Amino acid sequence: MAIRRLDNVLIVVEDLDAVIAFFVELGLELEGSGPLDWPGAERVIGLTGVRQDVAMLRVPGGPGRVELARFHRPAAVRSEPVDAPANTLGLRRVMFAVDELDDLLLRLRHGHGAELVGEVVPYGDLFRLCYVRGPEGIVVGLAEELR
Q1: Ramachandran area for residue 54 (φ above 0: left; ψ -120 to 50: alpha; else beta)
Q2: H helix runs in the chain, sequence order
Q3: In this predicted model, what pLDDT tens digit does every residue of 40-89 receive, in sequence order?
Q4: Please, how many CA atoms are within 13 Å of residue 144, restricted to the half-sphere of its CB?
């Protein structure tokens, strides 16, 4: 098999600090952030004259990461409305397994302006699930395992 793991998911943002704070509140750990100075980046992404800041956040104790990028040049392009519904084509959300869902939702709502997309719903007797829309319309799924 060619795939060994999912390394990271990239999210392009306008307010890098606000989105970092949102994901740190979710429980991700900031590995680092700053300007991307790698000359090969332009060749990989197919753009020229790129100037961007990036941040890498990791799942504690796990292999997954979320990479955030803020493009200064060329300017980022919005491809859909911020509040696009779940049936919009393309990547819709990233799902995280979490503990203490109710407490997390309270912190995300009050500290980061996050809103529930629908409701918190049980998935059988396995999970409580919900979607949350955070800064810049980023949607994350949250799954609390029922024990």
Answers
A1: beta
A2: 16-26, 40-45, 101-112
A3: 888 888 888 889 999 999 999 888 899 999 999 998 888 878 788 888 88
A4: 15
Sign for the pseudo-dihedral over CA of 108, 144, 62, 89: negative
Question: Contact, 1 vs 17, CB < 8 A?
Answer: no
C-alpha of 61 from chain center:
18
Q: What single letter denotes the amino acid at residue 122?
A: P
Given the structure tokens 């912190």, which residue do they identify? 107
pTM: 0.91
140 — alpha (psi -120 to 50), left (phi > 0) or beta?
beta
3-class SS at 113? Answer: coil
